[in-house]
Amino acid sequence: MNPHDSLIPLLGRGPDPEQLRHVRTIPAREAEHEPWPAWVHPDLVAAYGSLGIQEPYRHQVEAAGIAHAGEHVVVATGTASGKSLAYQLPALDAIHRSELRVLAEPGKIHDDGAVTLYLSPTKALAADQLNAIRALQLPTVRAETYDGDTDPASRRWIRDHANFILANPDMLHFGILPNHAWWAGFFRRLRYVIIDEAHSYRGVFGSHVANLMRRLCRICAYYGAGTNYPEPVFIAASATASDPEISFARLIGAPVKAVSKDGSPHGATTVAFWEPALTEVRGENGAKERRTAVAETADLLANLVSAQVRTIAFIKSRRGAETISSITKRLLDEVDPSLPERVAAYRSGYLPEERRAVEKALRSGRLLGVSSTSALELGIDISGLDAVLVAGWPGTRASLFQQIGRAGRAGQDAIAAFVASDDPLDTFLVNHPEAIFDVSVEATVFDPSNPYVLGPHLCAAAAELPLGPAELGLFGGTAESLLDRLVTQGYLRRRPAGWFWTHSQSAAAMVNLRADGGGPVSIVDAETGSLLGTMDSPQTHYQAHTGAVYIHQGDSYVVEDLNEDDHCVMVRRANPDYYTTARDVTQIEVLETQRTVQWGDVSVHFGDVKVTTQVVSFQRKALISNEILGEEPLELGARDLFTKAVWFVVDNRSLTGAGLIEAQFPGALHAAEHAAIGLLPLVASSDRWDIGGVSTALHADTGVPTIFVYDGHPGGAGFAERGFDKAKVWLTATRDAIKACECDSGCPSCVQSPKCGNKNNPLDKAAAVSLLDVLLKDATEASSLRMEAQR
């Protein structure tokens, strides 16, 4: 390979390192400005001018104009492209003009007032936006945050007087909608609802928020009837994603326009695709282990900091961020004792002032290196760095662009490196950068009709206002049958006017927006008795079994006891040099086939399944090397999960025709299943741990070799159905990832799974490629699939 960019040597491995698989350059982008729209009040233009914004970018003007004209809009442009101005402009203009009318005619009742509701997934992001709005110093704008930290004494004043309220979905669900009568004046004047970081609403959380938005629309329609603005305009800010207007329309249940051409300036960014080398360390079944993404990223960060290059390294886990920081400091201490203090970890649990201090130190250059959890990317006010490292696939293409977008300022070139972890998806992407840059196949996936999600929201909606028959369309085609079931179960009462909530307890308490069912389990420090946090019960067998390492705000604990009867986990502070992964065995039963497509002799199905899973053991793995230090059995009960799955059915004749013998079938199916689970996030915005799989050479329901991949959430999360819709793209990438891995017979980068309760045995890497060739031989594109409804 002959890298064509002089920035590659900054990574410290010379001009042509063996770990470098590909180099892509994101070209520099010139600014595209537009004049301020004529409808914007001169006071706003002056306020932005005082902050140095003399002229907006084209995408800001376009998105603001669509919203001002009364249409829902999503602006999906890059990191630090000024999306906030696009939604601030119409909202603040409406508020400012409304307040000026009140001041001009004191004592007169104005029916056309204007207020705005801003929703963000994190408190940190809302705090940043509050500071940005207050920096404009518009005396007519009374912006306040309204969340769980808001002083109860201040809440009534905010309800009655604030005209720009910044909240989160949790507060809307628990605090605002159930008490909508207190907010009647606010809802009557609600002109704009702003949804920031809209791409983060995916999976079960996205399904909850989609139903929450429908409940919000009901309340707005109730109070807005007869006013000049009966319904608010929704404005979303999103990272670049596939078909953002489709995802956002699904989130709010209404048509949406999208603005995605970025008019902000940006320097050129060289993106390196970096795969750590295989080492001599042997893992399960003698497979060679790769050097970990954590150790590799720490090396690269140390090299960049030594060269005085301001760098941020992203990784998913808090423990990973802390480990990268500590290894980097140790490496730098050997080079220059003054450098370790210029590196810091940046994680959740910091106070806002601590976060601001880290951001300021990085911007000023006093800090040269920061390792951060990727979850904090939403709340970080840092851009224009010299380099960005991404340790392991961050989960979505949108997140990757969000992170590497922090490198580079206008007129300045920058470098970013994606460091692959030991995972099939990372292996595929590091060898196929076109899947990131050239083909947009990933979508923000969620399923608002999931009965486990929708049912409790229908109860909450009925408690807010009785549900009338005319409103059922708002909640989708399954709502009526689900309401009948809720009546039978005694949750609701049916009357001629609709469905009523008749219980004294809170219906909103039936819904946990960020949970996947099963109720919370308390995590308790055994030494102090203090409550550290909670965990949803479906997670406990995997993350809170006896002996598991539990991380809380960067501190490590070891689980001493999981008490399922008392919903309690006892943990003790420790600092082990290993992490733990649970392993399970699974059985699956087909309940109903909903969609089927035929690929020659292969049939592909989607439908309802019952999954029975038992966690049987856990492994201890070294933090830095990933070496397996030991495995211990666990005695935990089996759990049933009713969910959605996609499955592939192939007969023995097709496999033997491809040169496979029956003895190879189990290893081929097992290896292909593991790799397919790892590659599903390529087409669905899932995490590997959101999904599971089963493969068998003779399944009881099909009678032939079958591979299942299922959603790991009750009722499904939309991931398996997305896999069905994009099956050809998904399985082609799965095959290519296995073929691209240079190991001999299978390793964690291709066909081994950290969750496998069968100790990754049997696995047949070469036979898996042959099997996938058979599955794909007559595969058709998703757009031409012939869907059949199955009874």
Key phrases:
globular; alpha/beta; Rossmann fold; disordered N terminus; disordered C terminus; Arc Repressor Mutant, subunit A; 5 domains; seven-stranded mixed sheet; seven-stranded parallel sheet; 791 residues
- Could you tell me the strand content as a percent range? 15-25%
CATH class identity of the largest domain: Alpha Beta
The chain-level mean pLDDT equals 89
Structural class: alpha/beta
Report how far the terminal alpha carbons are from each other. Answer: 54 Å
The CATH architecture assignment of the largest domain turns out to be 3-Layer(aba) Sandwich
Rg to the nearest angstrom? 27 Å
Structure description:
The protein is α/β, with parallel strands linked by helices. The chain has 23 helices and 30 strands. The strands form 6 sheets. A 7-stranded mixed β-sheet has the order 1-9-16-15-12-14-13, sandwiched between helices. Strands 4-5-3-6-7-2-8 form a 7-stranded parallel β-sheet, with helices on both faces. The radius of gyration is 27 Å and the shape is globular.
Summarize the structure.
With 791 residues, the protein is of the alpha/beta class. The protein has five domains: 8-27 and 267-421, P-loop containing nucleotide triphosphate hydrolases (Rossmann fold); 42-259, Rossmann fold, CATH 3.40.50.300; 451-509, Orthogonal Bundle (Arc Repressor Mutant, subunit A); 520-576, Beta Barrel (Thrombin, subunit H); 583-789, no CATH class. Helix 14 (424-431) packs across helix 22 (727-740).
